[in-house]
Amino acid sequence: MKRYHLAFLAAAAGCLAVSLLLTGCGGKPRVEDEGGDDVVIKPKGKDKGGKEAGKGGGTSGGKQKQPIKVTEAGVIKGKITLEGQKPDLGALTNALKAEMKQDRDYCLSGSPNETSEQEYRIGDNNGVGNVFVWIEPENARETFFEVPEDQIKALPKEVNIDQPHCAFLPHCSVMCTRVTDASGKLKPTDQKLLVHNSAKVTHNTKITGAPPNSEQNVTLPSGGKPKEFNLYPSNEPVTVACSIHPWMKGYIRIFNHPYAAVSVVGKEDKDEAYGTYEIKGVPAGATVRIFAWHEKAGMLGEPKGQSVKLEKESKVDFSMKAPAK
Predict the structure, then answer these.
(1) What would the DSSP string read from start to end of 46-61?
(2) Rounded distance between C-alpha atoms, residue 94 and residue 89, angstroms
(3) Spatial distance between the Cα atoms of 90 and 130, rounded to a whole number of angstroms
(4) What angle do CA 282, 286, 150 make, to 5 degrees?
């Protein structure tokens, strides 16, 4: 009887070892990156605003996905428009300036774009800037975007963020650091994030995101070399912050395709381009879901995205309400 009991325990231990090998210690599915890294793709969930997060990239296990090819390249255009009452931008700017204690005089010497509230950029046309817009396959479990080689080569090798005074410029950025290949693996595009410090004061850059983007925290001396960050596609935005000047914040969304944009922040409030966006090179003829996300309002429109059959030129608009405090 004792021998039977020991044999049973050995078999159970073997099953547990296999289970851990397949899932990792955290129990989350792993997808091996072409570079040899194990990339954890975070399941779909809730964003920080409590709304359902979009499907911002990555691959899943199971049967092999089928490619959505770009046989004809199209373009998506649209605008994000504020509905209802505008937030009190003056009060938000005053609150921001009240936070500026460390290096206050230098921070306040920046441009109006750096010394005004960072959460909303709204034009005279009620267009909302700094809204992320992107597409995903209609059935992301079974299909993926097969990105043409010329689109991969056209990607900028560097996405740059600077800190001339005490704000991150640009405030919002999109990246495509990897694409999904025919085998379902994530293939690097060699696109990197470079954070600069052209200010006359020291800054600290803290990158925070959901797995597989682990926290990275570095000090950037004044005028020093830019810091390079390697980021992975993720369902959730990555936050860029400064621990020395805690009011500083920016956002990045990283995808496994280049079909994403940030709505325009006009050079002037009267700029008619304010709040517009354009996504080029999309697969015309494919049915996709389109998403939009704002740092304060969360997901705009349908939480699971709006279903759209892409044409040579498609137009998709979004509306946004400023959340009540």
Answers:
(1) B-TTSSBPP--S---S
(2) 9
(3) 19
(4) 35
Quick one: pLDDT at residue 63? 76
3-state secondary structure of 41: coil
Model's pTM, two decimal places?
Answer: 0.81
Q: What CATH architecture is 66-320?
A: Sandwich (2.60)
**Number of CB atoms found within 10 A of residue 153's CB:** 9
**Contact (CB, 8 A) for 116 and 88:** no
230 within 8 A of 212, measured Cβ to Cβ: no
166-181 b/e with 16+ CB inside 10 Å = b?
A: bbbbbbbbbbbbbbbe
Please give the span between the terminal C-alpha atoms of the chain, in angstroms, as a whole number: 67
Distance CA 307, CA 292 (A): 13
* Sequence spans of domains, the chain: 66-320
Compute the distance between CA of residue 44 and CA of residue 305 in angstroms, rounded to an integer.
13
Model confidence at 62, in pLDDT bands (50, 70, 90)?
low
- Enumerate residues 6+ apart whose C-beta is below 8 A from 250: 161, 168, 170, 171, 172, 173, 239, 240, 241
**pLDDT score, position 184:** 80
Taking alpha carbons only, the member of 202, 195, 235, 231 closest to residue 219 is 202
Cα 166 to Cα 203: distance, rounded to the nearest angstrom: 8
